[in-house]
Amino acid sequence: MDATDRKIIRELQANARLTNQELSERVNLSPSPCLRRLRNLERAGIILGYTAIVDQERYGLPINVFLSVRLEKQTRDVIRTFEARIQEIDEVLECYTMTGASDYLLHVVSDGLKSYERFVKETLATIPGISTIESAFTFGIVKRRSSFPRLAHFEQRR
Asked: Is the dihedral of CA 110, 113, 118, 123 positive or negative?
């Protein structure tokens, strides 16, 4: 992947609805090589898909919760069971394995406190092998971005 591929990715992260013509103009390529590069990025699994950014509150899911989950033991079966069940739960937008005090960090959305309580009691807590669940509710979003920083930004720090 070269600098032109990274430009294509940055442009698409800013606006995935660009036509190939618009994209090619923004990255200074003619349309055919631009489309060829785009298809190569998709085939290589670098571009995984395209999505819409939606206003959570207007959609009806204004509550963001970050949950720290600790497992009773980190055995292969407990981990597999937990991770398989998490894949099935729609309220969980993201799940990360962690170092430190918790084993997982989950980003969960909800339409309200009662439904979040029901989610914890009736869905999350029923997964075998969980030792502790700690919830942290957000007041608001200070920054959210969907595009990666330029690599040159990191290289300048070195």
From this structure: positive
